[in-house]
Amino acid sequence: MFLAKVTGSVVSTQKVQQMVGQKLLVVEPLRVDEKNKKSLKGTGRTFICVDTVGAGEGETVLIVQGSSARFTEDTKTLPIDAAIIGIIDSVDSHGNTVFKGTN
Amino acid sequence: MFLAKVTGSVVSTQKVQQMVGQKLLVVEPLRVDEKNKKSLKGTGRTFICVDTVGAGEGETVLIVQGSSARFTEDTKTLPIDAAIIGIIDSVDSHGNTVFKGTN
Amino acid sequence: MFLAKVTGSVVSTQKVQQMVGQKLLVVEPLRVDEKNKKSLKGTGRTFICVDTVGAGEGETVLIVQGSSARFTEDTKTLPIDAAIIGIIDSVDSHGNTVFKGTN
Amino acid sequence: MFLAKVTGSVVSTQKVQQMVGQKLLVVEPLRVDEKNKKSLKGTGRTFICVDTVGAGEGETVLIVQGSSARFTEDTKTLPIDAAIIGIIDSVDSHGNTVFKGTN
Amino acid sequence: MFLAKVTGSVVSTQKVQQMVGQKLLVVEPLRVDEKNKKSLKGTGRTFICVDTVGAGEGETVLIVQGSSARFTEDTKTLPIDAAIIGIIDSVDSHGNTVFKGTN
């Protein structure tokens, strides 16, 4: 899995039947900053994910990719390869708190 | 999933039986422009996809990869690893409308 | 899926039983040239594929990756992650014919 | 599979039901140093994994990705694409011991 | 699939039950040298694979990735994403013999 920040959303009216009613979010994968090891930084890549946990823009989330994105109760029949499966409270790495949510 | 622009199409006469009659489109993956965060830009990569939604050249689409590309009604028996599952109306990211279709 | 050029072949005598008799081809993935958008160019990467359509060296082909490589009649029991599923006649992109076979 | 170092952990309260109680570790993939071929070095990438073997921070581990991450007794129903399946004692490469644990 | 050179091995005592007794090899993926097209060269990447064919250090092998790594007789229940499925005798590409084993 990987960490990502929700940066926005996608509107698609014309889509396969199974995807009707699914919220599609834009996310940017994150990594631990290689230089200071003290924060997460964006990778510049863009993925589109189905949301299963009520994530909102600006939140840091956990993404599962591939066939496993179909292994939640809400996604098992969907033609998707990426799903948000958790909202992140905090991330510790290299002895530092590299991310802490505002909740 | 990822966003992509349909840039063209492929003709293949000699192919596996299951693929006969399938429209094969050329797509270029897109990402949110890292600099201005105000538009989508091409990544320069080239994928070939089966189309399930009647997408046409120039349109911005949603692509699913991997085994999940076989999870639509039209593609379940096909030996494919990428399918277009939606036509994009608009994309919002970083507080900007980074894409808006002309329909 | 992706486009690739068949550049050669592999000989392997000692291999898993299921692969006995399978032709193994060397391919180089192709992409639309980002500069002129008028031709395909090699990516420099090297993949090994099973051939299901009688492709020969020098031909441009369509490759499927991952579990879907096992979804053709000839490959369903093979431990493979890439198969040639079509020989390409022509590719159009950005309004140009970026590839045309000699047949 | 790939080698990685456990660098930290993730806390996520709001997540899909199946993931409740699963320890989520932050790992950095490693490779054999191309220059000296005498040590492992970090790649700077960040993955989140489920742990099945009781790995701790600072340990070097073996990671499996994709659908196979669901092929252990503990992970078979989880929506995950990466799991730690072993703790590494030592790695030999190019005639050198490139890693040796402290146990 | 891809070509790789076996560069070493991994020792892991503490691992998931299914992996007990499995030989874990370190491999470096290879590609056809883009410059001279006359040899294979290393990519600098490091993968860990299960061996199904008795490969030894220094040998050039064929690797299958993903769920298909579980499609050999010896690996079908293993939580693995990469397996060696053949030992390479020779590779021809661009009209050159880019690799020839010593057997």
Question: Explain this structure to me?
Answer:
- The structure is a homopentamer of 103-residue chains.
- Chain A has one domain: OB fold (Dihydrolipoamide Acetyltransferase, E2P) (Beta Barrel).
- In chain A, 0% of the residues lie in helices and 49% in strands.
- Chain A has strands at residues 2-11, 14-15, 24-32, 40-42, 47-51, 60-65, 82-87, 90-93, 96-100.
- The mean pLDDT of chain A is 97.
- Chain A is built from no helices and nine strands.
- The first copy, chain A, is elongated, with a radius of gyration of 14 Å.
- The two termini of chain A are 23 Å apart.
- The A-D interface holds A 1-3, 30-32, 34, 40, 52-54, 62, 64-73, 75, 83, 85-95, 98 and D 7-19, 24, 26, 28, 44-49, 66-67, 69-70, 77-82.
Question: Quick gist of this model?
Answer:
Five copies of one chain form a homopentamer. The first copy, chain A, has no helices and nine strands. The first copy, chain A, has strands at residues 2-11, 14-15, 24-32, 40-42, 47-51, 60-65, 82-87, 90-93, 96-100.
Which SSEs are present, and which pair or pack?
Five copies of one chain form a homopentamer.
Chain A: E1 2-11, E2 14-15, E3 24-32, E4 40-42, E5 47-51, E6 60-65, E7 82-87, E8 90-93, E9 96-100
Parallel strand pairs in A: 5-7
Antiparallel strand pairs in A: 1-3, 1-6, 3-4, 3-5, 6-7, 8-9
Keywords:
103 residues; 9 strands; 0% helix; 5-stranded mixed barrel; mainly beta; two-stranded antiparallel sheet; OB fold (Dihydrolipoamide Acetyltransferase, E2P); homopentamer
